[in-house]
Specification:
With about 140 residues, this protein is an alpha+beta fold. The protein has three helices and eight strands. The strands form four sheets. Strands 1-6 form a two-stranded antiparallel ribbon. A two-stranded antiparallel ribbon has the order 2-3. It starts with 9 loop residues before the first helix and ends in a 6-residue tail after the last helix. About 20% of the residues are buried.
Length: about 140
């Protein structure tokens, strides 16, 4: 799998990459915050023997266990805040410390989330390719493409 068990965990690299996207304020891998309400028996991804080898019975951890990809689908969700450049006056303070109302003029995105989806997909692809190239360089196994 891709990733490292301590430094360079795949899930930490994916989360860091997502957080570099403007307006992203939260990242979940797999079940994310919902996992904290589960017990270990429900949150773990059990395996059973399958026709093609071991098969996972769930994907609560989003395709990453111990910082290394499992071969399952990678599940990453981001929370994107609403844009603050709206036409409604906003309260602020000027350089002299005085209260002011800031009014944004011009046309701005009403929802950055729409454009955030392809950006997040591209950022995930870049992060995975980087991990694949590192894995190839460190292990020297086969063609990275």
């Amino acid at each position: 799998g891709l990733g490292q068990p301590i430094y360079g965990k795949l899930d930490s690299e994916l989360a860091a990459a997502m957080m570099t996207i403007n307006a992203v304020k939260g990242v979940e891998i797999g079940g994310g915050f919902a996992l904290s309400a589960m017990d270990g028996a429900d949150a773990g991804d059990e395996m059973r023997a399958g026709d093609q080898g071991p098969e996972f019975q769930s994907n609560n951890n989003g395709g990453v266990l111990g910082g290394i990809s499992t071969g399952q689908q990678l599940v990453v969700r981001v929370a994107i805040k609403p844009t603050s450049s709206i036409l409604t006056p906003r309260k602020s303070v000027d350089l002299e410390g005085q209260d002011v109302d800031v009014v944004t003029k011009g046309r701005h995105d009403p929802c950055v989330g729409i454009r955030g989806v392809p950006v997040a997909e591209a950022m995930m692809a870049i992060t995975l390719l980087d991990a694949l190239m590192r894995h190839h360089a460190q292990c020297g196994l086969g063609d990275p493409a």
